[in-house]
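General statements about sequence and structure are easier to judge against a single worked case. Part of our work consisted of pairing the sequence of a single chain with a tokenised description of its backbone. The amino acid sequence and the backbone structure tokens for this protein are reproduced below.

***
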Amino acid sequence: MSYLTESLKIEILMIIEYGDRARTQCEVVHLFRETHPDLPPLNQGTISKIEAQYREMGHVRKVPSKRQAVVDDDTKLNLLLALEENPITPARQLARDMRWIPLSTSFTMRGHKP
């Protein structure tokens, strides 16, 4: 979907709701392929994501991705102490106990292997 510019996404939205009736995703894919044969083919999932983003946010601009959570040193220390007490505790369990994001737990533990 990265090859789709903002104007192409707007065009897809216009194809969806052109005239008095809304088109199905299959019809949109077919019409888009006819209009832009030089572009890679779209699938229904891409159409669905564009439509959902427009309905949720009111625009189709590129949304910046979420960054990794910033973790302070005290929280890292608490995590390492919990691992020292029970080294076989899964990262998800530690994250749940500390009310923390599991992915951040994995990244923090990765740098401190025993």
In short: The CA atoms of residues 2 and 65 lie 13 Å apart. The radius of gyration is 23 Å.
